[in-house]
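Recap from last week: sequence in, structure out.
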Amino acid sequence: MASKLAEFASAFGGTSTASLTSATALSVWDDALAYMTNQRVNRDRCVCYMTPATYKLFKQATGLTRFIEVTNGIQAVDRNVARLDGVRIVEVPAEMMKTAYNFTEGWAVASSAAQIDFVIVDPMAVAAPIKYETALMSAPTAQSKGKYLYYERYYYGAFILNERQAGVFAHLSSGPSAGTLTVTSTAGAAAGATVIDVTGHGIRQNGTIDEGLKLVYTAGTSAAVSLTYGTVPDSSKTWTEVDALPVTLTSQTAGKYVTVALVNAETGYVVAGGNTTEVVGT
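Predicted structure tokens:
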């Protein structure tokens, strides 16, 4: 579940890899909550799952005011942080907070996995169904000691609701790579026109863009523009937003490049990208 939540956050751009120490923990936390509040996520409904090491940093965070209640002499000193700014805190073993796992035989942390330091989730943003595959009842046998045996097999799933992708935020030890967009260019009806279409990450079948994301492009460049996950696209280029696909560009030159970036609408950070050479009408 933790790896799926991190996947949802990464796909939407709701991630951070900022340095996390006792001196910076509250600043990183404030940035995460500000991001979610700006996305209209109710923080009082959220739950934060974090590793013991991260929990320790928040307990020792610089600037945190502490009121320690001591009852019954020295027998009861409570230093728990049950809530922080209204968000419920739940500790999870670090091994269960990775971005990738291998389920070939049992389960194991994948070699490419990054550590999830904490993940904030709005339960209303996620659907976690249980799918039953098999349910059987077998008659008494010697092996079951003369008793009926009930057997079932089921699977847990996790899905993010399209309109509530902002409801998950993850702090990771290392950032993910940008998702891939497939960009195609076909000749337009007019001379110098090209029709650009994009499929893949965050693009629906009808050509519209997932809620909370924006699709922008820059065209007519001599080379493809480099895109890095979690950063704004190259500011030296002119980026134009696309509301729906496909889109027709005019006054283009064959062989030039068009680069498309999918960005988080709140932060402007890249979450996916792609490019192609332009094919224009003659």
